[in-house]
């Protein structure tokens, strides 16, 4: 099986440690993951702001970079959702039948990390060790666009040493929403303030989620409040092992 | 006329003001949570809720697919049953028809059943201009009307008010328009409802003409259906001599049996009840029983515009249950007024632009009034994929300005430039590599001067000026790392060396 890592533009430029963690984790599980260097972004920032024409060359770059892979794994529910549910819209808009056909190939092969681990590799215990008090925020797109369900939770529950605590109102949006965070900053912050409050109420030292963009928002608020909670991508916890954690 | 409240600012501005209303924030948080929990409990009782949703969506979809035929059938059935059918292209025509009926009967007042369509067309204001008072008889609509307020929710338009505020409105205003509130009025919900009942009773008994909407219009039997909780609707639909119903053309369903799924979906989704207390159905005129003159105004007002939209037409399936409002994290915090329309919340954010287009800035701001979290789609009883329609309407907004010689505003110009720059950068990985090198340098600079450390030890930017202020006003921003992932991969052969 040829497996490619779709790092996502946000992780590539801002959170490279998440990508390194995915590589470490997948290698430990026997998957020799590839990083096609021609990849850029999934196009979601343009699509969700209404700039569909601008998204066409970006989606083209995506399908070119990932053509021929059996699985495209991404540590982002949002980007997986974009590839699976929005690329076809962009391709239709382009009027290019070749792009439509290429998207039909890549879209169903794109997996969010926990889907790949649980559904394709069939593992929930990835041999991780993380002796900290952790609470998990299920991001909206992983939950409602992809339907990852309890996969992340099952993976976390199998981590040794972890103390997993329930996040109140967990399934409510954190208020990030891509360009929403800027275009409607006040509302975004009001939502984030409530999410940050719920996180603090758990007494956790680490907030974990499967999307660094949401974590950048919640974590940015927690940091501003000097709340004493750090945010981590799920991949980094799953990659952690005894001695390394 | 536009479909939105005149003079409303665009959503971000209206939302900013609403977010500062602490009383409203508390009222909304409490009310939406209560109704959300009730809905979740009664939906969980249904064995195959998803099957029921699919059935409901199919009923509405079938009706919309062949709308012209069903409307003609409805007109025939209604006419056969003794009703007088009118067609209204827009709000102005619909209001004129209702006013004419009132004038024909020489009345200066009508009683009203809660109706979204009449709110949409601004009927009360239009009648007032003709010297005809329109009395709202639904408790929440009465509160809004007496308070010179605007509705902020589809189902519970006074959701932004608490009982202390309602008591104050009743005490201050009831006496101006009829029977005053009793001296001993408290803020006990039962006492407040009792005062409203006394106040409304004289209006019910006096009125010659009633105005309603309809939740459904059954084509094959010519039956209109009103679903309600308080019984005020039943009073309006049975006591007066004349009844005028303003019905959006998307309310049509083909057959009586189509009501089966709809009447099971609606109460559970809206009030969180297994069955609503009052369901009134009437087919034209029944001699000696109820109104003896029945008018039905079939209203377009942008619906055929929405119907022509391939992605957006699913919004016409909406049965106005409000489940999407109650579950929406944006609505819960800003309330309904910020949307500037009788249709607020997620459904309003797509319905208003679909009905009226996106040429004015207020309506054009609505598709962006969402974080695209998808909670609305999850609860919609007729499976309207609201997030997808929101994105499609955002594209409609952007497309409508592609030919502009002069940018709409500075921030829109910035956005368009940023999106084009991002598209250019993301079209070729070599360009992205350069951009990441630049951001890595910026990260080093921020790292050197930053006095903010993220939990875990990473340097961050605190408050930044310019467009970044929108982010950093309340959120620290991690400094970009000196090395991007792809640079690391290349340098270390993917961590192997």
From TrEMBL, chain B:
<dbReference type="InterPro" id="IPR024185">
    <property type="entry name" value="FTHF_cligase-like_sf"/>
</dbReference>
<feature type="domain" description="4Fe-4S ferredoxin-type">
    <location>
        <begin position="315"/>
        <end position="384"/>
    </location>
</feature>
<feature type="region of interest" description="Disordered">
    <location>
        <begin position="456"/>
        <end position="497"/>
    </location>
</feature>
<protein>
    <submittedName>
        <fullName>Lactate utilization protein B</fullName>
    </submittedName>
</protein>
<dbReference type="InterPro" id="IPR037171">
    <property type="entry name" value="NagB/RpiA_transferase-like"/>
</dbReference>
<keyword id="KW-0249">Electron transport</keyword>
<keyword id="KW-0004">4Fe-4S</keyword>
<dbReference type="InterPro" id="IPR017896">
    <property type="entry name" value="4Fe4S_Fe-S-bd"/>
</dbReference>
<feature type="compositionally biased region" description="Basic and acidic residues">
    <location>
        <begin position="484"/>
        <end position="497"/>
    </location>
</feature>
<keyword id="KW-0677">Repeat</keyword>
<dbReference type="InterPro" id="IPR024569">
    <property type="entry name" value="LutB_C"/>
</dbReference>
<keyword id="KW-0411">Iron-sulfur</keyword>
<dbReference type="InterPro" id="IPR009051">
    <property type="entry name" value="Helical_ferredxn"/>
</dbReference>
<keyword id="KW-0408">Iron</keyword>
<dbReference type="Pfam" id="PF11870">
    <property type="entry name" value="LutB_C"/>
</dbReference>
<dbReference type="InterPro" id="IPR003741">
    <property type="entry name" value="LUD_dom"/>
</dbReference>
<dbReference type="Pfam" id="PF13183">
    <property type="entry name" value="Fer4_8"/>
</dbReference>
<keyword id="KW-0479">Metal-binding</keyword>
<keyword id="KW-0813">Transport</keyword>
<dbReference type="InterPro" id="IPR004452">
    <property type="entry name" value="LutB/LldF"/>
</dbReference>
<dbReference type="Pfam" id="PF02589">
    <property type="entry name" value="LUD_dom"/>
</dbReference>
<feature type="domain" description="LUD">
    <location>
        <begin position="72"/>
        <end position="299"/>
    </location>
</feature>
<feature type="domain" description="Lactate utilization protein B C-terminal">
    <location>
        <begin position="409"/>
        <end position="491"/>
    </location>
</feature>
<dbReference type="InterPro" id="IPR017900">
    <property type="entry name" value="4Fe4S_Fe_S_CS"/>
</dbReference>
<feature type="compositionally biased region" description="Low complexity">
    <location>
        <begin position="456"/>
        <end position="470"/>
    </location>
</feature>
């Amino acid at each position: 099986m040829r497996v490619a890592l779709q790092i996502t533009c946000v992780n590539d430029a801002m959170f490279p440690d998440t990508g390194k963690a995915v590589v470490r984790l997948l290698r430990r599980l026997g998957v020799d993951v590839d990083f096609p260097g021609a990849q850029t972004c999934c196009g979601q920032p343009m699509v969700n702001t209404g700039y569909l024409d601008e998204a066409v060359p970006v989606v083209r770059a995506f399908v070119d970079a990932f053509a021929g892979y059996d699985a495209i794994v991404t540590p982002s529910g949002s980007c997986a959702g974009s590839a699976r549910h929005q690329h076809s819209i962009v391709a239709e808009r382009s009027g290019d039948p070749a792009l439509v056909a290429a998207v039909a190939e890549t879209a169903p092969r794109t997996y969010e990390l926990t889907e790949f681990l649980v559904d394709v590799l069939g593992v929930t215990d990835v041999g991780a060790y993380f002796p900290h008090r952790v609470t998990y925020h299920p991001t909206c797109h992983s939950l409602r666009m992809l339907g990852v369900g309890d996969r992340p939770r099952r993976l976390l529950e199998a981590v040794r040493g972890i103390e997993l605590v329930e996040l109140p109102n967990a399934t409510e949006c954190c208020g990030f929403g891509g360009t929403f965070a800027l275009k409607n900053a006040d509302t975004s912050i009001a939502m984030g303030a409530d999410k940050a409050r719920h996180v603090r109420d758990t007494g956790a030292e680490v907030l974990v989620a499967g999307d660094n963009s949401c974590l950048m928002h919640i974590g940015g608020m927690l940091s501003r409040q000097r709340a004493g909670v750090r945010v981590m991508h799920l991949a980094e916890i799953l990659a952690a092992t005894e001695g390394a954690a | 006329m536009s479909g939105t409240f005149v003079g409303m600012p665009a959503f971000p501005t209206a939302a900013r003001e609403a977010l500062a209303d602490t009383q409203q924030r508390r009222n909304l948080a409490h009310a939406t949570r209560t109704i959300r929990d009730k809905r979740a409990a009664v939906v969980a009782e249904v064995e195959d809720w998803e099957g029921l949703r699919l059935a409901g969506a199919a009923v509405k979809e079938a009706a919309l697919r062949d709308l012209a035929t069903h409307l003609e059938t409805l007109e025939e059935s209604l006419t056969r049953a003794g009703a007088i059918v009118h067609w209204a292209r827009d709000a102005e025509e619909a209001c004129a028809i209702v006013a004419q009926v009132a004038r024909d009967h020489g009345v200066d007042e009508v009683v009203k059943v809660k109706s979204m369509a009449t709110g949409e067309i601004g009927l009360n204001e239009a009648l007032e201009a003709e010297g005809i008072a329109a009395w709202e008889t639904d408790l929440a609509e009465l509160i809004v009307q007496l308070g010179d307020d605007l509705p902020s929710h589809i189902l519970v338009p006074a959701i932004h008010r608490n009982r202390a505020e309602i008591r104050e409105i009743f005490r201050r205003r009831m006496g101006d328009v009829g029977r005053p509130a009793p001296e001993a009025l408290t803020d006990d919900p039962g006492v407040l409802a009792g005062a409203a009942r006394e106040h409304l009773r004289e209006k019910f008994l006096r009125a010659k003409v009633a105005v309603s909407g309809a939740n459904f219009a059954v084509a094959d039997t010519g039956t209109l259906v009103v679903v309600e909780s308080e019984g005020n609707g039943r009073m309006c639909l049975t006591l007066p001599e004349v009844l005028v119903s303003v019905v959006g053309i998307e309310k049509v369903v083909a057959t009586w049996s189509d009501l089966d799924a709809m009447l099971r979906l609606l109460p559970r989704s809206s009030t969180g009840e297994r069955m609503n207390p009052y369901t009134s159905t009437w087919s034209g005129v029944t001699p000696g029983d109820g109104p003896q003159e029945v008018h039905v105004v079939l209203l377009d007002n942008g619906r055929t515009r929405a119907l022509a939209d391939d992605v957006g037409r699913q919004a016409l399936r909406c049965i106005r249950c409000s489940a999407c409002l109650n579950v929406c994290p944006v609505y819960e915090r800003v309330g309904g007024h910020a949307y500037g329309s009788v249709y607020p919340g997620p459904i309003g954010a797509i319905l208003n632009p679909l009905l009226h287009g996106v040429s004015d800035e207020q309506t054009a701001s609505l598709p962006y009034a969402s974080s695209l979290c998808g909670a609305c789609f999850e609860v919609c009883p007729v499976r309207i994929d609201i997030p997808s329609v929101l994105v499609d309407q955002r594209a409609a907004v952007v497309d409508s300005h592609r030919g502009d010689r002069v940018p709409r505003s500075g921030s829109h110009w910035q956005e368009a430039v940023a999106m084009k720059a991002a598209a250019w950068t993301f079209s070729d990985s070599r360009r992205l590599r350069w951009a990441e090198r630049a951001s890595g340098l910026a990260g080093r600079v921020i790292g050197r001067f930053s006095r903010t450390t993220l939990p875990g030890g990473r340097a961050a930017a605190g408050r930044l000026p310019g467009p970044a202020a929108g982010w950093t006003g309340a959120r620290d921003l991690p400094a970009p790392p000196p090395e991007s992932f792809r640079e690391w991969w290349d340098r270390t052969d993917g961590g192997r060396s």
